[in-house]
Write a structure and sequence with these properties.
Strand content: 5-15%
Number of strands: 3
Shape: elongated
Strand order of the largest sheet: 1-2-3
Order of helices and strands: HEEHEHHHH
Largest sheet: 3 strands, antiparallel
Number of helices: 6
Radius of gyration: 24 Å
Distance between the termini: 43 Å
Length: 171
């Protein structure tokens, strides 16, 4: 619950307590947090990071009228938390180790795809730049896995065979 005032937050919390007690539930005070939303404040909640930013906004009309005051624009950025990103990268790394090079490539992809798809479905709200970085990381890890599996095959043949129509992170 987001409120502007501490007293308002207490009243709402009491109403929520009454609502949950009627249904035989209770609110855990250890997990309930009251913070002050300030510029740059970050809160981790259910695997997401909520990041509030106040930035000065200069529009074209402000420039034309030569106003001295700036309007502030608030933005709430929601993206997956650092802990969840780290856990996904560890899981991908565990699938792409050199010990797993005995798998056939189609079995390797069959094991890896549900992990990536499930995480992406859960955190689809997030910022696109996070998914771009993850795409680069996954490409790098699968490339290392394929080159360690097929050491004697040239890299151009590996690209033709396994990365047909797939752009590399440098493209």
């Amino acid at each position: 619950v987001v409120c502007n005032d501490q007293d308002e937050a207490k009243r709402i919390k009491e109403k929520i307590n009454q609502f949950t007690l009627k249904r035989g539930l209770s609110i855990n005070d250890l997990k309930s947090v009251a913070i002050k939303w300030e510029n740059g404040a970050k809160v981790d909640f259910l695997g997401f990071t909520l990041h509030l930013l106040h930035r000065p906004f200069i529009s074209r009309t402000t420039k034309q009228k030569k106003r001295k005051e700036l309007r502030m624009r608030e933005r709430l950025h929601i993206y997956p938390s650092v802990v969840n990103l780290r856990n996904l990268k560890r899981k991908i790394k565990s699938y792409t180790t050199r010990q797993k090079t005995g798998l056939a490539p189609y079995k390797f992809i069959k094991e890896l795809n549900p992990v990536i798809r499930g995480w992406a479905n859960q955190f689809a709200i997030g910022a696109p730049w996070i998914f771009s970085r993850l795409d680069q990381y996954i490409w790098f890890r699968t490339w290392r896995w394929i080159t360690s599996k097929y050491r004697k095959v040239s890299k151009s043949k590996l690209v033709k065979r396994f990365y047909q129509g797939v752009k590399t992170p440098s493209d």
